[in-house]
Amino acid sequence: MDPFEDTLRRLRETFHAGHTRPAEFRAAQLRGLGHFLQDNKQLLHDALAQDLHKSAFESEVSEVAISQGEVTLALRNLRAWMKDEHVPKNLATQLDSAFIRKEPFGLVLIIAPWNYPLNLTLVPLVGALAAGNCVVLKPSEISKSIEKVLAEELPRYLDQSSPNLGRIINQKQFQRLRALLGCGRVAIGGQSDECDRYIAPTVLVDVQETEPVMQEEIFGPILPIMNVWGVDEAIEFINRREKPLALYAFSNSSQVVRRILAQTSSGGFCGNDGFMHMTLASLPFGGVGASGIGRYHGKFSFDTFSHHRACLLRSPGMEKLNAIRYPPHSPRRLRVLLVAMEARGCSCTLL
């Protein structure tokens, strides 16, 4: 599917699911926009200087402050703006209710010019978000520096992703996961909504091995990325830690995938995918070492929860054959007995 078509489809699904309508959601988006302006003020000033040679004074007055003011105003008045507006009635409608309800359009496209590239992008964005819309934002491609900042930084502060994405199980786990977002640097995602216990799918880069996100099972939509020099270092990194429940190796080279499979140990392994090995009842699922004991799925589950009792029933009529085991012993009897005790492909036994 074309990526633009896919984006539009997801945004329409989000709107039709009613995700953007509650005042709490709208306010969270506006607060995120405000945080974007505060956290990236110097970056925005630098971008405006590169694009238009604006001084810090002019950038603050004509771009940043106006945008921040719009956010503050919308947050202060959001619930009042959302209320139904009752209008005067004539004599024939005195017993009726007449009002104007402000409904979001749904999916909004904002195309910004280059002359005030921040102001004329964010001010209409404030209104569109406050009104409960999903937004496709198109900064001017002429003001390249501001376009780059908006494209790379702004999505981290606003809810993108979809009603199809899950939520965190409870507040305790939400707070634990949100704290992990401080590890490394957010490259993709990073948005969160405490009221909805939502954390966007997030990619962290520049992560250090000693950081908390690398010390525990995450159980959330956070993917930390550590850079290594090559496959050797990656394998060494895996092998000096506890054996994982599952190991996923992604590579265009089948040799790389097979090498990682051969030189590491894990409960399960999947090449060029994640999770799919769990869909096969014919494959056991379970850990090894610190990642777990036992295995399940299909008959493996039955075997895990069964004691495998060793049993052998012999006929009393075979006792004469047992004579070679009893004294007096001889080298010949020993040779015969050892041959009889050797593992055989057949299912019978001599003794």
UniProtKB/TrEMBL annotation:
<keyword id="KW-0560">Oxidoreductase</keyword>
<dbReference type="InterPro" id="IPR015590">
    <property type="entry name" value="Aldehyde_DH_dom"/>
</dbReference>
<dbReference type="InterPro" id="IPR012394">
    <property type="entry name" value="Aldehyde_DH_NAD(P)"/>
</dbReference>
<feature type="domain" description="Aldehyde dehydrogenase">
    <location>
        <begin position="12"/>
        <end position="152"/>
    </location>
</feature>
<dbReference type="GO" id="GO:0006081">
    <property type="term" value="P:aldehyde metabolic process"/>
</dbReference>
<dbReference type="Pfam" id="PF00171">
    <property type="entry name" value="Aldedh"/>
</dbReference>
<dbReference type="InterPro" id="IPR016161">
    <property type="entry name" value="Ald_DH/histidinol_DH"/>
</dbReference>
<protein>
    <submittedName>
        <fullName>Aldehyde dehydrogenase 3 family member B1</fullName>
    </submittedName>
</protein>
<dbReference type="GO" id="GO:0004029">
    <property type="term" value="F:aldehyde dehydrogenase (NAD+) activity"/>
</dbReference>
<comment type="similarity">
    <text>Belongs to the aldehyde dehydrogenase family.</text>
</comment>
<dbReference type="InterPro" id="IPR016163">
    <property type="entry name" value="Ald_DH_C"/>
</dbReference>
<dbReference type="GO" id="GO:0004028">
    <property type="term" value="F:3-chloroallyl aldehyde dehydrogenase activity"/>
</dbReference>
<dbReference type="GO" id="GO:0005737">
    <property type="term" value="C:cytoplasm"/>
</dbReference>
<keyword id="KW-0520">NAD</keyword>
<feature type="domain" description="Aldehyde dehydrogenase">
    <location>
        <begin position="163"/>
        <end position="307"/>
    </location>
</feature>
<dbReference type="InterPro" id="IPR016162">
    <property type="entry name" value="Ald_DH_N"/>
</dbReference>
